Amino acid sequence: MVGLVTSWAGKGAHLEHFELAEFFASNPTAESAFNKYRQLLNRFDFWGGMYGLAPEKSPGSTEEAMRLLSNYSESFMREYVHYELLVTDPLAQHCIAGRTTPLSWCIEGFRPEGKQQDILADLMKAEGELNSEGQVRGVAFSVGPPDQYGLGGVSLMSAAKTQEELNRQLEASWEQVQGLANMLHAYMIQPSITQSLVGLTTRELECLHWLAAGMNVQQIADRLGRADATIQNHIATASRKLRANNRTQAVSRAMLLGLINL
Q: What is the pTM of this model?
């Protein structure tokens, strides 16, 4: 695991990087890995965080993030997913665009336009009420670098009251914070961990694999000894988990995330 530390921890490895690498050596679940990462970030006065994994986008593609992990409130995440705010969230788009430079933000100045953006602004402000004065600030940035398994992005909240405070916080801990985020992404893009994030069953993966190989539903059903309707149900469930609009997109996303290959 030392290689993981030296490859992803930036200019130099810190105590927290080695602690995270030792934890990863136990092969924790995606949720446990994220929770450990968040515990370590608390040492640098960052609270509330989100990690997202998105397929690498080809020119003209509109593919968005597949899966999110967060310790924001359940109500925030429920509404965020329900209203599909990922598509219009400027913080998420900053990450999906592959921008590793931290984008600073504050709830007081979070006033985007449009219905979805109004909903997002209200959710952000409600989350900020966890802070006594509601003046929560933070940063968002892409982690990686991107590879065949896709882009990663994180958003962090800080209790800094002013931009100057946030700047000082980042100046003191940016190397550690960025290194921890890069290490988390390196762990998450392992096929077995990505699989646990998306939650596809073995049978669902088989169906996607044979779709990718050019088979139709009847051919897959014959090969697996199942009814056509059963195969269609597996494909529909897999598509829903991958947030795909059709079978072709489901296969594409599964391949981009390294879940299936030919």
A: 0.77
